[in-house]
Amino acid sequence: MTWELTGFAVAVVFSALYSGSETGIYAVNRLRLEMRAQAAEDHAARALDKLVSSQEALLCVLLIGNNIANEATTILAEHIVSGFLTDVRFSTLVTTAVLTPLLFVLGEALPKQLFRQHAESWAYRVTPFLQLSRIVLAPLWLLVLPVARLANRLARGRAASGFRHDEFALERLLSSANQQVDPVREAALGIGSRQKSPVRDVLVPLDRIRWLASDATIEDLRKSLQVARHSRYPFRDDDGEFRTYVYFLDAFHFNGRATSLKEVARPLIELPVDAALEDALDVLERASSRVAVVKDASGQALGFVFAADVVAGLLASA
Q1: How do residues 307-318 score in pLDDT, each as one tens digit?
Q2: Ordered domains of the chain (ranges, CATH)
Q3: In the predicted model, is pLDDT for residue 172 greater than 70?
Protein backbone atom coordinates (compact mmCIF):
# COMPACT_ATOMS: atom_id res chain seq x y z
CA MET A 1 0.00 0.00 0.00
CA THR A 2 2.89 2.36 0.76
CA TRP A 3 4.34 2.17 -2.74
CA GLU A 4 0.89 2.70 -4.23
CA LEU A 5 0.34 5.86 -2.18
CA THR A 6 3.81 7.09 -3.10
CA GLY A 7 3.24 6.35 -6.76
CA PHE A 8 -0.15 8.06 -6.63
CA ALA A 9 1.40 11.21 -5.13
CA VAL A 10 4.20 11.22 -7.71
CA ALA A 11 1.69 10.80 -10.55
CA VAL A 12 -0.37 13.74 -9.27
CA VAL A 13 2.79 15.87 -9.09
CA PHE A 14 3.70 14.93 -12.66
CA SER A 15 0.18 15.77 -13.82
CA ALA A 16 0.44 19.14 -12.10
CA LEU A 17 3.84 19.82 -13.67
CA TYR A 18 2.70 19.01 -17.19
CA SER A 19 -0.60 20.89 -17.04
CA GLY A 20 0.95 23.85 -15.23
CA SER A 21 3.88 23.99 -17.64
CA GLU A 22 1.49 24.11 -20.59
CA THR A 23 -0.11 27.26 -19.19
CA GLY A 24 3.07 28.79 -17.83
CA ILE A 25 5.14 28.46 -20.99
CA TYR A 26 2.48 29.98 -23.19
CA ALA A 27 2.01 32.79 -20.66
CA VAL A 28 5.69 33.73 -20.79
CA ASN A 29 6.36 37.09 -22.38
CA ARG A 30 7.84 36.03 -25.73
CA LEU A 31 9.57 39.33 -26.31
CA ARG A 32 11.40 39.08 -22.99
CA LEU A 33 12.19 35.43 -23.66
CA GLU A 34 13.79 36.27 -27.01
CA MET A 35 15.78 39.05 -25.37
CA ARG A 36 16.97 36.86 -22.50
CA ALA A 37 17.90 34.09 -24.91
CA GLN A 38 20.34 36.48 -26.62
CA ALA A 39 22.48 36.46 -23.46
CA ALA A 40 24.98 33.60 -23.63
CA GLU A 41 25.02 33.22 -19.84
CA ASP A 42 21.25 32.76 -19.56
CA HIS A 43 21.12 29.03 -20.24
CA ALA A 44 17.57 28.60 -18.93
CA ALA A 45 16.20 31.18 -21.35
CA ARG A 46 18.09 29.70 -24.29
CA ALA A 47 16.82 26.21 -23.43
CA LEU A 48 13.23 27.43 -23.07
CA ASP A 49 13.45 29.41 -26.29
CA LYS A 50 14.62 26.27 -28.08
CA LEU A 51 11.70 24.28 -26.67
CA VAL A 52 9.15 26.93 -27.61
CA SER A 53 10.58 27.22 -31.12
CA SER A 54 9.00 23.84 -31.89
CA GLN A 55 5.52 24.41 -30.54
CA GLU A 56 3.96 21.26 -31.99
CA ALA A 57 6.64 19.02 -30.45
CA LEU A 58 6.39 20.77 -27.09
CA LEU A 59 2.61 20.47 -27.05
CA CYS A 60 2.85 16.76 -27.89
CA VAL A 61 5.28 16.20 -25.00
CA LEU A 62 3.04 18.08 -22.56
CA LEU A 63 -0.17 16.34 -23.58
CA ILE A 64 1.36 12.85 -23.73
CA GLY A 65 3.09 13.32 -20.39
CA ASN A 66 -0.09 14.63 -18.79
CA ASN A 67 -2.17 11.76 -20.17
CA ILE A 68 0.31 9.18 -18.90
CA ALA A 69 0.37 10.81 -15.46
CA ASN A 70 -3.44 10.92 -15.29
CA GLU A 71 -3.73 7.30 -16.41
CA ALA A 72 -1.19 6.23 -13.79
CA THR A 73 -3.11 8.20 -11.17
CA THR A 74 -6.35 6.44 -12.08
CA ILE A 75 -4.82 2.94 -11.99
CA LEU A 76 -3.10 3.53 -8.66
CA ALA A 77 -6.21 5.10 -7.16
CA GLU A 78 -8.26 2.04 -8.12
CA HIS A 79 -5.69 -0.22 -6.45
CA ILE A 80 -5.78 1.88 -3.29
CA VAL A 81 -9.58 1.98 -3.10
CA SER A 82 -9.94 -1.74 -3.91
CA GLY A 83 -7.89 -2.48 -0.81
CA PHE A 84 -10.69 -1.06 1.30
CA LEU A 85 -13.73 -2.06 -0.79
CA THR A 86 -14.35 -5.55 -2.13
CA ASP A 87 -17.21 -4.63 -4.47
CA VAL A 88 -15.56 -3.78 -7.79
CA ARG A 89 -18.48 -1.68 -9.07
CA PHE A 90 -18.69 0.34 -5.87
CA SER A 91 -14.90 0.67 -5.84
CA THR A 92 -14.92 2.15 -9.35
CA LEU A 93 -17.69 4.57 -8.39
CA VAL A 94 -15.81 5.77 -5.29
CA THR A 95 -12.58 6.12 -7.26
CA THR A 96 -14.29 8.28 -9.87
CA ALA A 97 -16.10 10.39 -7.28
CA VAL A 98 -12.93 11.08 -5.31
CA LEU A 99 -10.35 11.20 -8.09
CA THR A 100 -12.17 13.54 -10.49
CA PRO A 101 -12.32 16.61 -8.21
CA LEU A 102 -8.89 15.78 -6.75
CA LEU A 103 -7.22 15.71 -10.15
CA PHE A 104 -9.13 18.76 -11.30
CA VAL A 105 -7.94 20.83 -8.33
CA LEU A 106 -4.42 19.48 -7.73
CA GLY A 107 -3.56 18.35 -11.24
CA GLU A 108 -5.20 21.03 -13.37
CA ALA A 109 -6.79 24.14 -11.85
CA LEU A 110 -4.29 24.92 -9.07
CA PRO A 111 -1.06 24.36 -11.05
CA LYS A 112 -2.41 26.25 -14.06
CA GLN A 113 -3.30 29.22 -11.87
CA LEU A 114 0.05 29.18 -10.06
CA PHE A 115 2.05 28.84 -13.27
CA ARG A 116 0.04 31.65 -14.85
CA GLN A 117 0.83 33.95 -11.91
CA HIS A 118 4.52 33.01 -11.80
CA ALA A 119 5.12 32.33 -15.49
CA GLU A 120 8.21 34.55 -15.73
CA SER A 121 10.06 32.46 -13.14
CA TRP A 122 8.48 29.00 -12.97
CA ALA A 123 8.50 28.38 -16.72
CA TYR A 124 12.29 28.69 -16.73
CA ARG A 125 12.66 26.40 -13.72
CA VAL A 126 10.71 23.50 -15.25
CA THR A 127 12.70 23.65 -18.50
CA PRO A 128 15.13 20.85 -17.45
CA PHE A 129 12.14 18.66 -16.55
CA LEU A 130 10.58 19.29 -19.96
CA GLN A 131 13.88 18.62 -21.74
CA LEU A 132 14.13 15.26 -19.95
CA SER A 133 10.50 14.49 -20.78
CA ARG A 134 11.19 15.29 -24.42
CA ILE A 135 13.96 12.68 -24.46
CA VAL A 136 12.10 9.98 -22.50
CA LEU A 137 8.84 10.38 -24.43
CA ALA A 138 10.54 10.72 -27.83
CA PRO A 139 9.21 7.38 -29.21
CA LEU A 140 5.66 8.59 -28.54
CA TRP A 141 5.71 12.25 -29.49
CA LEU A 142 7.69 11.59 -32.67
CA LEU A 143 4.82 9.36 -33.82
CA VAL A 144 2.20 11.97 -32.99
CA LEU A 145 4.13 14.99 -34.28
CA PRO A 146 3.26 14.61 -38.00
CA VAL A 147 -0.43 14.49 -37.14
CA ALA A 148 -0.08 17.53 -34.87
CA ARG A 149 1.70 19.50 -37.58
CA LEU A 150 -0.93 18.59 -40.15
CA ALA A 151 -3.72 19.62 -37.77
CA ASN A 152 -1.91 22.87 -37.03
CA ARG A 153 -1.56 23.69 -40.72
CA LEU A 154 -5.22 22.92 -41.33
CA ALA A 155 -6.28 25.01 -38.35
CA ARG A 156 -4.18 28.00 -39.32
CA GLY A 157 -4.99 27.71 -42.98
CA ARG A 158 -2.89 29.32 -45.67
CA ALA A 159 -5.76 31.06 -47.38
CA ALA A 160 -5.11 34.67 -48.24
CA SER A 161 -8.05 35.86 -46.16
CA GLY A 162 -6.44 34.61 -42.98
CA PHE A 163 -2.76 35.23 -43.71
CA ARG A 164 -0.76 37.69 -41.63
CA HIS A 165 2.98 38.20 -41.64
CA ASP A 166 4.90 37.86 -38.40
CA GLU A 167 5.59 41.38 -37.17
CA PHE A 168 8.46 40.12 -35.06
CA ALA A 169 10.33 38.49 -37.94
CA LEU A 170 12.26 41.58 -39.07
CA GLU A 171 13.33 42.42 -35.53
CA ARG A 172 14.58 38.87 -34.99
CA LEU A 173 16.44 39.10 -38.29
CA LEU A 174 18.11 42.33 -37.21
CA SER A 175 19.09 40.80 -33.89
CA SER A 176 20.61 37.80 -35.64
CA ALA A 177 22.63 40.23 -37.74
CA ASN A 178 24.06 41.73 -34.53
CA GLN A 179 22.11 44.96 -34.79
CA GLN A 180 20.89 46.29 -31.43
CA VAL A 181 22.28 43.20 -29.72
CA ASP A 182 23.71 45.03 -26.72
CA PRO A 183 20.44 46.63 -25.59
CA VAL A 184 18.66 43.35 -26.22
CA ARG A 185 21.10 41.53 -23.95
CA GLU A 186 20.69 44.17 -21.28
CA ALA A 187 16.92 43.80 -21.46
CA ALA A 188 17.35 40.03 -21.26
CA LEU A 189 18.83 40.41 -17.81
CA GLY A 190 15.65 42.15 -16.68
CA ILE A 191 17.31 45.54 -16.22
CA GLY A 192 14.66 48.18 -15.72
CA SER A 193 11.82 45.66 -15.62
CA ARG A 194 10.74 46.95 -12.21
CA GLN A 195 10.65 50.55 -13.32
CA LYS A 196 7.32 52.34 -13.52
CA SER A 197 8.29 54.99 -16.04
CA PRO A 198 5.24 56.05 -18.10
CA VAL A 199 4.91 55.56 -21.83
CA ARG A 200 4.88 59.34 -22.29
CA ASP A 201 8.66 59.16 -21.88
CA VAL A 202 8.99 57.27 -25.18
CA LEU A 203 5.95 58.73 -26.91
CA VAL A 204 6.29 59.71 -30.57
CA PRO A 205 3.98 62.74 -30.99
CA LEU A 206 1.45 62.92 -33.78
CA ASP A 207 3.35 65.60 -35.70
CA ARG A 208 6.24 63.15 -36.12
CA ILE A 209 4.06 60.25 -37.28
CA ARG A 210 3.55 59.52 -40.94
CA TRP A 211 -0.01 58.27 -41.17
CA LEU A 212 -2.28 57.23 -44.02
CA ALA A 213 -5.78 58.37 -44.89
CA SER A 214 -8.55 55.83 -44.45
CA ASP A 215 -8.93 55.54 -48.23
CA ALA A 216 -5.18 55.19 -48.92
CA THR A 217 -4.07 52.89 -51.72
CA ILE A 218 -1.05 50.69 -52.20
CA GLU A 219 0.57 53.52 -54.18
CA ASP A 220 0.16 55.86 -51.21
CA LEU A 221 1.93 53.28 -49.09
CA ARG A 222 4.75 53.00 -51.62
CA LYS A 223 5.26 56.77 -51.51
CA SER A 224 5.31 56.75 -47.72
CA LEU A 225 7.86 53.96 -47.72
CA GLN A 226 10.11 55.94 -50.05
CA VAL A 227 10.01 58.90 -47.68
CA ALA A 228 9.89 57.40 -44.20
CA ARG A 229 10.83 53.73 -44.69
CA HIS A 230 8.71 52.73 -41.71
CA SER A 231 7.18 49.27 -41.51
CA ARG A 232 3.87 50.28 -39.87
CA TYR A 233 1.54 53.11 -40.78
CA PRO A 234 -1.57 54.07 -38.79
CA PHE A 235 -4.78 54.98 -40.58
CA ARG A 236 -6.46 58.25 -39.70
CA ASP A 237 -10.21 57.88 -40.10
CA ASP A 238 -12.53 60.61 -41.33
CA ASP A 239 -13.34 61.60 -37.73
CA GLY A 240 -9.63 62.06 -36.95
CA GLU A 241 -9.35 58.91 -34.84
CA PHE A 242 -6.64 56.27 -35.15
CA ARG A 243 -8.12 52.78 -34.86
CA THR A 244 -6.11 50.61 -37.24
CA TYR A 245 -2.73 50.40 -38.93
CA VAL A 246 -1.18 48.53 -41.82
CA TYR A 247 1.95 46.40 -41.73
CA PHE A 248 3.67 46.87 -45.07
CA LEU A 249 4.28 43.15 -45.74
CA ASP A 250 0.54 42.49 -45.38
CA ALA A 251 -0.18 45.20 -47.92
CA PHE A 252 2.19 43.85 -50.54
CA HIS A 253 1.07 40.28 -49.96
CA PHE A 254 -2.52 41.27 -50.72
CA ASN A 255 -1.57 43.60 -53.57
CA GLY A 256 -3.97 42.95 -56.44
CA ARG A 257 -6.44 41.07 -54.27
CA ALA A 258 -7.52 43.87 -51.93
CA THR A 259 -9.35 46.94 -53.22
CA SER A 260 -8.28 49.02 -50.21
CA LEU A 261 -5.45 48.98 -47.70
CA LYS A 262 -8.07 49.03 -44.95
CA GLU A 263 -8.94 45.47 -45.89
CA VAL A 264 -5.61 44.29 -44.49
CA ALA A 265 -5.53 46.70 -41.56
CA ARG A 266 -4.80 45.51 -38.04
CA PRO A 267 -6.46 46.93 -34.93
CA LEU A 268 -4.43 49.47 -32.97
CA ILE A 269 -3.79 48.79 -29.31
CA GLU A 270 -4.72 51.71 -27.05
CA LEU A 271 -2.63 52.73 -24.05
CA PRO A 272 -3.24 55.45 -21.45
CA VAL A 273 -0.53 58.09 -21.33
CA ASP A 274 0.36 57.17 -17.74
CA ALA A 275 0.72 53.42 -18.44
CA ALA A 276 3.99 51.96 -17.15
CA LEU A 277 6.56 50.88 -19.71
CA GLU A 278 6.65 47.30 -18.44
CA ASP A 279 2.84 47.11 -18.65
CA ALA A 280 2.96 48.51 -22.18
CA LEU A 281 5.48 45.84 -23.15
CA ASP A 282 3.19 43.12 -21.80
CA VAL A 283 0.18 44.52 -23.67
CA LEU A 284 2.08 44.71 -26.95
CA GLU A 285 3.40 41.18 -26.56
CA ARG A 286 -0.01 39.68 -25.74
CA ALA A 287 -1.51 41.40 -28.77
CA SER A 288 1.42 40.32 -31.00
CA SER A 289 1.81 43.96 -31.98
CA ARG A 290 4.69 46.42 -32.13
CA VAL A 291 2.76 49.68 -32.04
CA ALA A 292 0.07 51.27 -29.88
CA VAL A 293 -1.76 54.59 -29.90
CA VAL A 294 -1.43 56.60 -26.68
CA LYS A 295 -4.43 58.57 -25.46
CA ASP A 296 -5.06 61.01 -22.63
CA ALA A 297 -7.84 60.76 -20.06
CA SER A 298 -10.35 62.33 -22.45
CA GLY A 299 -9.59 59.78 -25.18
CA GLN A 300 -7.61 62.21 -27.34
CA ALA A 301 -4.75 60.61 -29.28
CA LEU A 302 -1.40 62.08 -28.24
CA GLY A 303 0.94 59.93 -30.29
CA PHE A 304 2.28 56.42 -30.67
CA VAL A 305 4.69 54.09 -28.90
CA PHE A 306 6.68 51.31 -30.50
CA ALA A 307 8.01 48.16 -28.86
CA ALA A 308 11.64 49.01 -29.61
CA ASP A 309 11.24 52.41 -27.92
CA VAL A 310 9.55 50.79 -24.91
CA VAL A 311 12.51 48.44 -24.46
CA ALA A 312 14.94 51.34 -24.86
CA GLY A 313 12.96 53.28 -22.27
CA LEU A 314 13.19 50.41 -19.81
CA LEU A 315 16.94 50.31 -20.26
CA ALA A 316 17.28 54.06 -19.86
CA SER A 317 15.26 54.01 -16.65
CA ALA A 318 17.44 51.34 -15.06
Answers
A1: 888 877 776 654
A2: 2-157 (no CATH), 179-316 (3.10.580.10)
A3: no
**Nearest of 63, 51, 72 to residue 132 by alpha carbon:** 51
pLDDT tens string 236-281:
998 999 999 988 877 777 655 556 788 888 899 999 999 988 888 8
pLDDT at res. 29: 76
Q: What angle do CA 227, 230, 234 make, to 5 degrees?
A: 105
